[in-house]
Amino acid sequence: MPFGNIKLNDGNKVPAIAFGTGSALNNTDVTNSIIQALKTGFSHLDTAQRYGSERYVGAAIKESKLSRADIFVCTKYNSGPTFRQSLEESLERLSMTYVDLYLIHYPERMENHEWREVEMIKQDGLARSIGVSNYNLQQLQALVERAKIKPAVNQIYLHPYNYKDHKALIEYAARYDIVIEAYGCLDPITKYPGGPVDAPVAAAANRRGVLPVQILLAWVKAKVAVFITTSTSKHHLQEHLAAADIRPLTQYEIAAIDVAGACGLPS
């Protein structure tokens, strides 16, 4: 069965797997890649002001002929005199009247701003849900303490090699029903091959006759609710979606990956 939807603390729902338009795709025309992702089965598109991809997301959705209501779109604030003005500019590039999720891309982007400005964006219907990105535990705690509308999401860089650094953050977010979205979760394979995590991941993959990337996606799904992945390869996108159908990891397998990740990145 496909990855389902996750309920947010404001009652809205977010698809558990997203197609990301950042990283290697930054500042490139990703229209065809997005269309391919939509055709393959993705319905959650993750973009940002700094990625330079918002106009391509809008163009791809238009060309796909899919209903706006069937696609979940997240974008992120990077700069601008006000959050509202920045989002209105993003909406113009996206050719939309609202986004499903609006995130503050980095904690320092909140300097000289108030969270109340973001809350008003939600109240006025420009974003159905609001949240943050790259917040650590202390930063999220400080925001939650002063927020009238708590962030629905905190999107962070997460994989087995840095999980121990984020464990307390993930546990804190769960107490307030703040969904953790993970990006970079395949980095142990794509950027840091040959490390301690390879062995337990390969063992779990061999037991199921599946791919190591699918085991990593299963691991991150066991840790958090939502994850972002990307590829210009239709075959790889299909593999990512197929991770929903593999036999769940056992607690032993999850712990083995955790322990290996705590050993640190390969030297």
UniProtKB/TrEMBL annotation:
GO molecular function: oxidoreductase activity, acting on the CH-OH group of donors, NAD or NADP as acceptor
Keyword field contains Oxidoreductase: yes
PROSITE patterns in the cross-refs: ALDOKETO_REDUCTASE_2
Record key words, sorted: NADP, Oxidoreductase
Binding positions (substrate): 105
SUPFAM superfamilies: NAD(P)-linked oxidoreductase
Keyword NADP appears in the UniProt entry: yes
Classification via Pfam families: Aldo_ket_red
Annotated active site: 51
Residues covered by the NADP-dependent oxidoreductase domain: 21-186, 203-258
Record-marked site positions (Lowers pKa of active site Tyr): 76
Family: Belongs to the aldo/keto reductase family.
Record's protein name: NADP-dependent oxidoreductase domain-containing protein
Organism: Galerina marginata (strain CBS 339.88)
